[in-house]
Amino acid sequence: MSKKVKVTRDAKDGKPFEFALGQIRVDEATLRKIIANSHNATIIISNDMRFEYVSEEGYRIFGGAEEDLLGHQVTEFITPDSAKLVSERYAQRIKGAKVIDSYPITIYHKDKSLRIIDIRISLIKTTDGTQKALIHAQDRTEEKQSQDLLQASEERYRTLVETMNDGLAIDDNDCIVTYANEAFCNMLEYKPKDIIGQCWVEFTKEKDMELFKAKVKERQSGKSDRYELVWVTKSGRVIPTIVSAAPIQNAEGTFTGTFAVITEITIQKDAEDTVQFYLDLLTHDISNQLQVIMTSAGLLDQDLLKSYLDDAQQDIQDAVERCTRLITKVKRAGQLRHLPRTRMDLSTVVKEKIAVLDRVYSTHSILKNLDNPASVWADALLGELVWNLLENAARHNPSEDKKVWVSATRKNGYIQLSIADNGPGISKARKKTIFDKSKRQGGVGLTLVSQMARKYCGTLEVEDRVKGKPNQGAKFVLSLIEAK
Question: Is 80 exceeded by the pLDDT of residue 455?
Fold first, then answer.
């Protein structure tokens, strides 16, 4: 398809004209074959921007034949932006200005599609002294499309990784974190710069080097694994997780690091603890009360003094009431996972419950900083939470003059509700285990409150009402996120 260009030459001796290529000399036919078989298109255009010569590869790129291109304006076959760029740079080049000679342009293929080609332009002079533009062009369309698809794929995966709910972390063969997605950083309450460059073991609860070495050895051997691991956040909270880890290997099969998906299982762990807690209640607390009922009921059939029979009846009634309260609290705890958090006014809830407390337990309550609304993120069981704390302050207080101090303060985005009493107080040793389900030293009420506080992303702490004097009463401090 290429147009044969006649070469004017002086051949007085009748020998074919030869061209020097490096250290060899080739004839015209060989030179044409070299140009025709080049992967780059060779194009010559005139000063008025018309095609004068197009090689075989050039016709393939444009999708036309001699009659489609030769003699036609170059600008007919390239997009307006590319045409402007080529024309401006060609005019500058003709004037002798130094311009970039290699750049991409967009052309129209004969089938109406757009194609991206890289061109390299230089000026040549013909035997008659006319200056032409010599263009070498290479089709980059498929390569550019592949790059675009790859970039789009990378963007999709990057978006997937950055928006996934689970944490994702990558470390090198020295267990130094090289990447951490937003979910993992949020989970640990750190910025990426605080995690990347550190050994992942530094963020775990147990800085167990034996575990560390064992996991590294498994990854180096090419083994993937799934195991539980507890992390420690910046604020000191512990986060139970499931880690799904797999080794990363280079093209040669050499171990270069590990990538791991970290799934928080706090809710599942709480559910497991709750199930165990309920089981303990059924097998221990209620069983004890049933034993009291059966023992006391046996006394009613015997010929005993009326005072003994009255005591037995009272014991049965008390045991039934305890079982009823226990079942009610367990039912309340079971509702925790089914209620969404919403904006609740803590001040209103506290004042409603205080009115009931003073009436039922004859307490004298002193309120502070609860006149104005104090919105927190909670749910419909916020009243149950507050009531359990207030009831705990009154029920276990043997004083004839029962006093309860309730106050609210704002601190670092939280509203702290303080409930103190003038009861017997809580010893230092008991404070450490009062919220431990396995110990149950705080009873069902405090266990329920502790669960609810965690659900609301809050905390519950116990202190002395008078610092350093536990026998003068206890103080519970509930911190809930302020709803602004």
Answer: no
* Terminal C-alpha separation, the chain: 76
Residue 321, CA distances (Å) to 100, 190, 298, 299, 332 in order: 92, 49, 19, 19, 17
Which amino acid does the sequence have at 300? L
CA 272 distance to own-chain centroid: 25
- 28 or 11, higher pLDDT: 28
Q: Is residue 475 within 8 Å of 447, Cβ to Cβ?
A: no
For the CA atoms of 16, 17, 20, 23, the dihedral, rounded to the nearest 10 degrees, stands at: 20
pTM (2 d.p.): 0.43
Q: What are the residues whose beta carbons fall under 8 Å from the beta carbon of 271, sequence distance 6 or more?
A: 337
Compute the distance between CA of residue 476 and CA of residue 460 in angstroms, rounded to an integer.
Answer: 7
Give the pLDDT score at 408.
Answer: 95
Per-residue b/e over 72-93, b at no fewer than 16 CB within 10 Å? eebeebbeeebbebbeebbeeb
| Block residue for tokens 């002193």 | 366
Nearest to 11 by CA among 27, 24, 23: 27
Higher pLDDT, 93 or 110: 110
The total of other beta-carbon atoms located within 10 Å of residue 229's CB is: 20
Kindly indicate the confidence band of residue 303, based on its pLDDT and cuts at 50, 70 and 90: confident
Per-residue pLDDT of 388-421, as tens digits, reads: 899 889 988 988 899 999 999 999 899 999 999 9
Q: What totals of helices (H) and strands (E) does the chain contain, helices first?
A: 15, 19
Alpha-carbon distance of 248 to 233, in angstroms, equals 27
User: What is the number of alpha carbons within 13 Å of residue 379 lying toward its C-beta?
Assistant: 16
For 104, 148, 232, the CA distances from 236, given in Å and listed in that order, are: 56, 44, 6
Which tens digits make up the pLDDT trace of 143-187? 887 777 777 666 766 666 666 778 888 898 888 899 988 889 998
pLDDT: is 339 or 118 the higher one?
118
Closest by alpha carbon to 183, among 85, 78, 261, 77?
261
Q: Which residues contact 183 (CB under 8 A, 6 or more apart)?
A: 164, 165, 166, 167, 168
**Beta strand segments in 270-333, E:** none
Contact 213, 234 (CB under 8 A): no
> Distance between CA 127 and CA 405 in Å, rounded?
107
